[in-house]
TrEMBL record, chain A:
SUPFAM superfamilies: 4Fe-4S ferredoxins. Pfam families: Fer4_5, Fer4_9. Residues 361-389, 393-421 form the 4Fe-4S ferredoxin-type domain. The chain crosses the membrane at residues 14-33, 39-60, 85-103, 129-149, 161-182, 218-238, 272-295, 315-335. GO terms for molecular function: 4 iron, 4 sulfur cluster binding; metal ion binding. This is 4Fe-4S binding protein. Gene3D superfamilies: 3.30.70.20. The lineage of its organism: Bacteria, Pseudomonadati, Bacteroidota, Cytophagia, Cytophagales. Keywords: 4Fe-4S, Electron transport, Iron, Iron-sulfur, Membrane, Metal-binding, Transmembrane, Transmembrane helix, Transport. PROSITE patterns: 4FE4S_FER_1, 4FE4S_FER_2. It comes from the Bacteria. One of its GO terms (cellular component) is plasma membrane. InterPro entries: 4Fe4S_Fe-S-bd, 4Fe4S_Fe_S_CS, Electron_Trans/Redox.
Automatic annotation (TrEMBL), chain B:
SUPFAM superfamilies: FAD/NAD(P)-binding domain. Residues 10-294 form the FAD/NAD(P)-binding domain. The lineage of its organism: Bacteria, Pseudomonadati, Bacteroidota, Cytophagia, Cytophagales. Keywords: FAD, Flavoprotein. The keyword Flavoprotein applies. GO terms for molecular function: oxidoreductase activity. This is NAD(P)/FAD-dependent oxidoreductase. It comes from Adhaeribacter soli.
Amino acid sequence: MDFSEKTAWFSKKAALPLVLTWAGLLMALLPLFLKSYFISVLSATGFGLFTLGSIWYIYLKFRNTDSANLQHYVWFNQFSARRSAAWLLGIILTAFYIVLFWFPEYLTGLIRIFDPLSFLLRGRQADEWFLYGGLYTLAILIMGVRALLKYQSSPYHKWRTVSIMFFQLVLAFILPNVLALFKEPEFYFSYFWPLKYDYLFPVSFENLQKHPGGLTTFMLFWTVSLSFLATPILTYFFGKRWYCSWVCGCGGLAETAGDPFRQLSNKSRKAWQLEVAIIYPVLGFITLTTALLWLNSYYKGGILGSLSGGFAHTYGFFIGMIFSGVVGVGFYPLLGSRVWCRFGCPLAAYLGWLQKHFSRFRITTNGGQCISCGNCSTYCEMGIDVKWYAQQGKPIIRAACVGCGMCATVCPRGVLKLENKKPEGRYEPTSFIHAESLRIL
Amino acid sequence: MKTQENSSKHVIIIGNGIAGVTAAITIRKLSDYCITVISGENEHFYARTALMYLYLGQLRYENIKPYEDWFWQENRIELRHAWVNRIEFEEKTLILASGETLAYDKLLLATGSQTAFYNWPGQESKGVHGFYDLEDLAKIEKATQRGGKAILVGGGLIAVELAEMLHSRNIDTTILIRDAHYWGKNLPKAEAEMVRKRLEQKGINLLFKTTLEQLEQDSEGWVCAAITNEQERIPCTFVGIATGVQPNLELVKNGSINTQKGILVDQFLETNIPEVFAAGDCAELAFAENRIEQIWYTGRIQGETAGYNICGHQVPYERGVPFNSAKFFDLEFQTYGSVNPEVNTEESSLFWQNEAGTASIRINYLKDELKTVTGFVLLNVRYRQEVCETWIREQKPLEYVMKHLKEANFDPEFHRRHEKSIQHVYKSGN
Ligand SMILES: Cc1cc2nc3c(=O)[nH]c(=O)nc-3n(C[C@H](O)[C@H](O)[C@H](O)COP(=O)(O)OP(=O)(O)OC[C@H]3O[C@@H](n4cnc5c(N)ncnc54)[C@H](O)[C@@H]3O)c2cc1C
Ligand code: SF4
Ligand code: SF4
C-alpha cells in the first residue's frame, strides 16, 4: 500500500468502514455477556456488519497495491512488527483457544447465534466446534479477499488463494456438515493421515463401517488412497505445495489471516535445527502408533489393551489442541503464521520428505542475479533463509518449503521461480557464482 | 591440517562490501590464511542494494545482512569495525584511526565508492544528501521527516530508488535529469519512455534537460530551494544527490599506488604494488579500457577473482556476458549483453511492448547477414540468464533465438506469456 494514499484516504474514506467493523464486532460478541432474543438479532447483524466493514476497509487499503509496494510499512505497523498491539492480539487469540478447548460453556451465548446456520447445514444445534469451524471459515474468506487484493499483481497468488478459500468453504465446512444432515459420518475430504492421524486408526474404520453404504466405502478408499497414492504422486509432480498452500485449512488460515505476520518466522540456523528435531519425531511417533494400533486390533487388544484409546486422546490433546491451536494460531502475531506447519505437522513432515527426495519441484535461482537484499528470506513464512541459496546461485530445495511463492513475489529482481521440471540435476547450482561452498548445516 | 607456510600469512581486506567479503570467503575456501576484514562503516556485511527497503519499512537492518553473525567466526574471518587512516606500503602495515598498527602480508583494497558531488554552491546545507551508506540513510530519514518537497538530482537508478522512497512517505518529488530522456546511456528511448510514464503516473515530476546550478538555504542552514540551469527556482526541503558515484580513493590518494579515477589494477586485479590488490567499486580496470564497474554482480566477481589471485592462483578477471537488473517502482528491468542499439550503429533491434506499455522485450542483433543476437532488454518480462548468455556467447542468429524463445522464459507460473507477440512482430518485420 502507498503511504500517500493511506494518509489521503485514511481520514475520510476509511472512517465509515472502520466504524462498521468495530461496531459490528462488538455487537457480534454481545451474547457472550447478555442473553435475550434482541441481543441475538443484534449479534447476527453484527456479524454481517463486521464482514461488510472489514471487506470494505480492506478494499480501500489494498486496491492499489502493485508488485513493488505490497510489503511497504510492514515493520512500521503495530501488528506486523510485533509491537504492543500484536501482543494484545496474541493474548486475545490464545485466550479464545483456551476457552474453546477447556471452558466452552462460556461460549454458549455465541454458539446459539450459529444455531440457524447449523440447522440449515446439518439439521441440529450448533456446538462449540461448529462455532469454531464457522469463525475459521469466515477468517479465511475475509482475509482471503485481502490476499486477493494485496497480491493482485501475481496470478499464482490469485489462483492459490481462490483454491484455499474454496477448499475451506466447501470441503472443510459445508460438505462435512451436510454429510451429517444426511446421517452420513462427518468426514473431511481435504484432510487425511498423518494430519488427521485417526483416519487411519482402526477405530475410524470400525466407525465408518457402522454406517454401511456406498459413500462410506468411498470414504475409506478416499482416505487411504490420499495418504498413500495421491500424496506421493502429486508431490512428485508439484511438490508439497499442492496441499500445504493450495488445499489445507491450516495452511489456508496461515496464508490469509496469517499473512500480516509471515515475516515473524525465525530464520536462524537454530530454528532450523529445532524444526528438524521436532517435526520428524512427530511423524515417527504417529507412524509407530498407527502401526501399533493396527497390530493391537489384529490381536484383539492383546498388545495395548485399553491404552490405545488413551494414547489417541493424549496425543490429540498435546498436538491437536495445544500445538496447532494455541501455539499455532494464538501465537500468529508473535511467532509468525506457520509455527504449526513448520514444527508440528506430521503431514508436512511426510510431504517434505517426499518433496526433498522424490519431486520435480524446486525454486530456481536465475543465474547470478541475486543482490542479497534479503526480501525473500524475510517474507518466507517457513523461516527458510532463501537468500542463502539464491546468492550462491543454488536452487532452493527444502523439505519445509510450502511453495507459497512469496519469496519469488517479493524479490525485487525477479531472481526466483517456482517450477516443476525433470528431477535430474535438480540440485545443480548456476555456473555464474562459485565462491561460497561453505556449508551451514 | 594447517600448513605452516599458509597459516603464517595474514591477508587484510579493507572494506566489508560485496567485493571485500566475497574475496574473504574465496580465500577461506582456498587457503588457511589469517583473514581480517576491516570496515569503518559498520561491523557486519550488509546489502547496500537493500538500503531503500529499510526506509520503506519493508525490511529491518538484521534482514539485510546476507550472513548470520556466527558465519564469520565459524569460518575464521576476523571482523574489525574501524577506519583505516594510512597504509605504509613499504613496511606492509596500516594504521587505524585509533592509532593501532596492523601488519599484513597481502592487502585487498575494497573501499567502494562515494556519492559524486559537483561543487554546487550551497551543497553543504542541511537536508542535502547522497544515498550510499547507513549514515546517509539516517540523515535522509531525519531530513524527510520535516515533510515538504523534495528535489532529486540525477537521471539514474539511485534517483528512482529515492523517488520510490519519498513517494512512500507522501513527499512531493521532482527529479532533475540532464538528458532528454531517462537514463539515456543505458535505456533505449522506448523503454525510457515507459519508465517516464510510470514515474509520472506515480506523481513524480520529471524535468528533462535540466541540471542543478545552486542551492539556497534558510536562516537555520536547511536547504530551502534549488536553482536550475534554466534559472528556475524550486522551493524544497530535501535534496537527494544521485548524480552517480566515484571510487573512494581517500585512503590511497597521496600514496605510491597508481590511481586515475579509481585504483588502477591489471587483469589479476593487482595494483602497481606487488601483493596489494583492489576490487569492486574502487577499482579501475587498466587492462579493459579503464572501465570502472560499480554494480553488485561485478563487485562479487571481482572479489572472487581477487581472492583467487591473493591465494596464488593466477586467474584473470573475466566479467562474462554483462547483465544487470533493476526495478523502477513496479517495472522490473533486466538486461543481458548489449543494452542500447541506439548508441551503436552496428546494431539494430527487434522490439515489442504490450498495449498498456507495462511490459516489453527488445532483442538486439548485429546488422549482419545472420542477424547475430547481441543482447536482451526486458521490462516486466523475465528471461533465464543461462539461456540468454549461451545464445549471446555462441552468437546465435535471430532466427534461431526466435524459434527457441520459450526456453528463455523465466516468468512466474500462470503469468501471461509473450513469446507469440514478439514472434508476430518478427514475422511481420521480415
Ligand atoms: C542505494 C544503492 C543501491 C544500489 N543498488 C544496486 C542494484 O540494485 N544492483 C547493483 O548491481 N548494484 C547496486 N548498487 C551498487 C552496489 O551496491 C555497489 O556496486 C557495491 O555495493 C559496491 O561494493 P564494494 O564492495 O565495492 O564497496 P562498498 O559496498 O562500498 O564497501 C566499501 C566499504 O569499505 C569501507 N571503507 C572505505 N574506506 C575505508 C577505510 N579507510 N577504512 C575502513 N573501511 C573503509 C566502507 O566502510 C564500506 O563499507 C547500489 C548502490 C547503492 C548505494
Ligand atoms: S521458500 Fe519461498 S515458496 Fe517456499 S515457503 Fe518460503 S517463501 Fe514460500
Ligand atoms: S533472491 Fe531476490 S529477494 Fe532474495 S536476496 Fe536475492 S535479490 Fe533479494
